[in-house]
Design brief:
The complex is a heterodimer of chains A (about 300) and B (about 525). Helices cover about 70% and strands about 0% of the residues of chain A. By secondary structure, chain A is an all-alpha fold. Chain A has one domain (about 5-295): ABC transporter involved in vitamin B12 uptake, BtuC (Orthogonal Bundle). In chain A, helix 1 crosses helix 10. The termini of chain A are far apart. The model of chain A has no long low-confidence stretch (mean pLDDT about 90). Chain B is an alpha/beta fold and about 525 residues long. Helices cover about 30% and strands about 25% of the residues of chain B. Chain B contains 16 helices and 23 strands. Chain B is globular. In chain B, about 45% of the residues are buried. Residues about 510-519 of chain B have low confidence and may be disordered. Classes of the chains: A mainly alpha (about 300), B alpha/beta (about 525). The interface between A and B is medium-sized, with 20 and 26 residues.
Amino acid sequence: MDIDLLSNIFFATVRCGTPLLLVAMGELVCEKSGVLNLGQEGMMLFGAVIGFIVALSTGSLWLGVVLAILAGMLLSSLFALVALVFNANQVATGLALTIFGVGLSSFVGAAWVGKPLTGFEPIVIPWLSDIPLIGRMLFAQDILVYLSFALFAVVAWTLLKSRVGLIIQAVGENPNAASAMGLPVLFVRTLAVLFGGAMAGLAGAYLSLAYTPMWAENMSAGRGWIALALVVFASWRVWRLLLGAYLFGFASILYLVAQGVGLAIPSNLLAMLPYVATIVVLVLLSRNALRTRLYAPVSLGQPWQSGH
Amino acid sequence: MPQSMNQARLQLRHITKRYPGCLANDAIDLSIQPGEIHALLGENGAGKSTLMKIIYGVVQPDAGQIIWQGQPLNMRNPAQARELGIGMVFQHFSLFETLSVAQNIALAMGAAAGTPKQLEPKIREVSQRYGMALEPQRLVHSLSIGERQKVEIIRCLMQEIRLLILDEPTSVLTPQEAEDLFVTLRRLADEGCSILFISHKLGEVRALCHSATVLRGGKVSGHCKPAECSDLQLARLMVGDAEGLVAQYPKASGTASFLQVDKLSWHNPDPFGCSLTDVQLEVRSGEIVGVAGVAGNGQDELLALLSGEQTLSRSDAQRIRFANQAVAHLRPDARRRQGLAFVPAERLGHGAVPEMSLTDNALLTAFQQGLVSKGLIQRSKVQALAETIIQRFAVKTPNAHTAARSLSGGNLQKFILGREILQSPRLLVAAHPTWGVDVGAAAAIHRALIALRDAGAAILVISEDLDELFQISDRVAALSSGRLSALAPTAQTSQVQVGGWMAGQFDASPSQPDAAPQI
């Protein structure tokens, strides 16, 4: 296999893993604070359709990105209202949000299906992009991929090193103790949910404005669900999340490569590969029960009210 | 601001708090001087917890006044209380298990105090000054219960502290650990810190506290100097009628061996749980064996293995025997047919279904006593059984159709124990039979256990309360880190000695003297 092909595979792996990484980071922060939001898929699709419509009608891709983020946050604020303020069951609320988001995005986007749009172009950084193998992967991507690198650094630092990360983890592990200590549990959780919504919206914008610049119903193709699984199988650890997201991207690319090379494997089986490979690897990684329990937010999914 | 020498550090005037259906605090008055160790005594449900939550700003009172160093104020939240120099050590620790000691302390102290790393030297200094050695980088889940309590206390001491509130601090400690805690508390008081010590153990209140306020049913039933009062006087203040509190039961020696646990080892798959190592235990018919130990030393695991909620493989069936019949591979219903009855530690959710009526709860474990015929429930018999239990064991409830969760802890415990005893078990395993139960109900439960023993049943009681174990059990042992000490007749040992066993001071396994010590 020649170097060019590998370089291309790496490049495409990152492109393909980016939307997953974005959603999964949002969900990770959300779950670390103890909230399980199953609405990722819905928020992502809504972000994608809003981003596309705004970009196409105003001609500004960036305005599309900003409104996609706001769209994701709008849906997640609905979730926060129902699940955190009214203390509804988080699983049911999240599922409802996904169903709502999928339907709403189809409805809003019905007139925009198949319209052409020039999306974000790659920004090739001179010299650096010429590094063999990893040059194109890291330095010839579009601006949203670079943004995802930066966001990853911020999220990783916040969760692992900062006081904010400590607070999020404390709220997620034991909201009663956190509240007794004077930490604003519901406020922290609401912010975490909104951050999750923003990231899902951004991931949607990446799909409809950069990855495949167009709008199609259900274009997220289950990535919101995969992101949820990624967070669990990554044992709520941010570096494993990165690994899982790119692994998924890599396996998705392999499928295209295998087809290109002409391997006689049924395409349905190949299409399953990314999902199966990602989960198998992360399950193997999360075998150590102690480590998993150390990172899992204990109060995940449990409604909480101050006062008791 | 001028301060007179004998101005109270904290004064409460007519503090009142009402919850739906209960007056938790009724016009409580209380006053604590600087450097004073003040006991807040009372039974479970007397209103102690509510009162200290009010002092710490977790709960707002409906009426009354809090006066802090001469200034009336509204305690809005715990943050304000901490700013004033009030620290609190909760009974159920408010620590985060997945964080390190330093991270836990940093979280409580606010951003201005510094990062966990910056706090480490100060944590070391404070912990050494008060004789509570602690490594700041250790993760809390790897600490023992006693060490976790030290983290809580050090967390309070990191700031300028004027009032330290401790909620039943010794309930999770061995007697020796409790002694160490008292040394620390006395030193703090000498430095001028006031201490509010919440407890229902009379002995330690008398040993430690300068003065006491006693609560009963949400009201102050008396103020006193504990050193000048007898246990009986204090107990009268706590419960009103102290009859039967200090009952002495004759010891028995039992007859034939019924329960045999033989070199039982079990690896706990839960990384935060405790594994059992070479447990050797025997209970004879007609005796009560008590197992002491601080929570988390293998009690839950031993109970699950004895009740059959955790079974062993067929090849290990001999590890647990009832009257020489191997049962370790049997599930709970099969073991019950062999004569087992079981009273678990959690009443609601384990011993009884909270939402179900007492009648239905009676059926749950007694269905093998002729209550089911041809697959159909004999409603009238179940009803009769429930009513018998209620009557025989003086369960206070409107009727047998009341939901289990609406009974008080003591009444539900009497019901569950009654349900098990009426099945005439050959072996009764009871976990923490009087935990959280008021003194009157506890005495009734003890009498019922003694009567069952005298009727010839083998009884195993697992409890954290040494006083209780010494009162009712004929032989006693202690669990420590999943290992069980040898059994000794209660009359020939002392609480100090059993306290040592609870701390692991015994030969690992008498049958294998060369076994390497664990952990």
